[in-house]
User: Which sequence fits this backbone?
C-alpha cells in the first residue's frame, strides 16, 4: 500500500546540457572527474509505471536534464494514469516540442539568476509557447534568485519564485529560511520518493551525491516494498520524535518540504 504517497521523482537522465554556476555538480565533478552520468533503462521505466498508483504526481527530474532522454515522449506516455510534470532548463523545448506538447501535463522552466544564457533561454521559451498555443502542458517560469519578472509576465504564464541556496544541499538559503510545517515533520519525507536513473530509490530530491538517503533499489525490489521499508519508517519516527538530526541526509538540510519563495 502506498499510504500518503503524493509524488515520485523519476530521473530519466542524469546527464545535463548546461553548466549552471550554482549547481553542486560542479564541485562533485572537480573532486571526481571520472563521475559517470547516464539514462534510465526503458525496461525500468516500464516497471516503475506499472507499479505506481493512479492520480499521483510524476516529476521527471532529479539532478539531470530529462529532455536529453532519447525516448522522453514514450516514457511520459507510460504514465498516462498519473499527473506528469517536468522542471527543465528549457534548452530543448523547441527541438523536442512534439514529445512535450499534448503529452506532458505541466512544465516548469527554471530561470536562474546570473545565467549567461538567459537571452537564448527566453527566446526558446517564447517560441515554445507560440508552438504550444492552448495545448498542454500548463507552463510556468520558475525564477530562481533575483530576476526581473516583467518580461516573463508578458508571456502570459504563471510566475513561480524560488530562493537560491547552497550548491551542495538545501541549506544556506538567501533572503529567508524555508517554512517549517506545524506538524514538525518534513512533508517531502512523508509524501515523496525519488528514483535515480540507475534505479536507486531515495527519500527526497535534495542533492545527495553520496547516496546517503537511499532506501532501496527499484531494479530488484518493488516500489511498494521500498515505500514501506523499515529504514524509511525509522526515519519518519525520528522526525516524529523531534530527532531529525539523527538522519544523515537531514542533518544539515533546512528544507521541510515547503517550497521557499524568494
Assistant:
Amino acid at each position: 500500500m502506498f499510504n500518503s504517497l503524493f509524488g515520485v521523482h523519476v530521473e530519466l537522465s542524469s546527464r545535463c546540457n548546461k553548466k549552471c554556476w550554482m549547481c553542486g555538480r560542479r564541485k562533485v565533478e572537480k573532486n571526481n572527474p571520472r563521475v559517470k552520468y547516464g539514462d534510465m533503462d526503458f525496461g525500468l521505466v516500464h516497471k516503475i509505471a506499472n507499479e505506481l498508483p493512479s492520480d499521483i504526481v510524476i516529476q521527471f527530474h532529479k539532478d539531470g536534464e530529462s529532455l536529453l532522454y532519447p525516448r522522453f515522449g514514450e516514457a511520459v506516455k507510460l504514465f498516462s494514469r498519473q499527473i506528469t510534470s517536468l522542471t527543465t532548463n528549457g534548452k530543448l523545448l523547441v527541438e523536442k516540442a512534439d514529445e512535450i506538447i499534448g503529452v506532458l501535463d505541466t512544465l516548469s522552466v527554471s530561470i536562474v539568476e546570473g545565467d549567461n544564457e538567459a537571452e537564448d533561454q527566453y527566446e526558446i521559451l517564447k517560441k515554445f509557447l507560440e508552438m504550444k498555443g492552448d495545448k498542454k502542458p500548463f507552463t510556468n517560469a520558475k525564477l530562481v534568485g533575483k530576476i526581473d519578472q516583467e518580461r516573463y509576465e508578458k508571456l502570459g504564464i504563471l510566475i513561480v519564485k524560488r530562493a537560491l541556496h547552497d550548491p551542495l544541499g538545501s541549506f544556506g538559503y538567501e533572503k529567508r529560511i524555508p517554512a517549517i510545517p506545524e506538524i514538525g515533520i518534513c512533508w517531502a519525507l512523508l509524501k515523496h520518493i525519488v528514483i535515480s536513473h540507475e534505479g536507486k530509490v531515495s527519500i527526497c530530491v535534495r542533492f545527495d551525491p553520496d547516496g546517503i538517503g537511499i532506501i532501496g533499489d527499484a531494479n530488484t525490489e518493488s516500489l511498494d516494498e521500498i515505500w514501506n521499508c523499515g529504514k524509511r519508517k525509522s526515519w519518519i519516527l525520528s522526525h516524529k520524535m523531534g530527532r531529525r538530526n539523527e538522519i544523515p541526509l537531514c542533518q544539515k538540510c533546512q528544507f521541510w518540504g515547503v517550497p521557499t519563495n524568494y
